[in-house]
Amino acid sequence: PISPPGVPADWLRMTAIQLANQKEWSRFPQIREWQAKSRLDAFAGRIQQLNGTDPEAALHLGRYRINVAKAAKNLPQLLAR
Asked: How far is the first Cα of the chain from the last one, in angstroms, to the nearest whole number?
């Protein structure tokens, strides 16, 4: 679970937790399948719906995939400030 934000820096904390969760969950096909069908993770289902149907969305998702690992590595440094 991720606690809601109380101060602006909490958005960094929430993102760090969310990215760590996603990385762990991505190791399990069963979890990815459940996420795609669950109302609790609207993002995963939407990505599957857009897969191959919207070139602009594919471009943005590609950029996200390229940069998300770098962003996750920078979060601890940002949180330490």
From this structure: 24
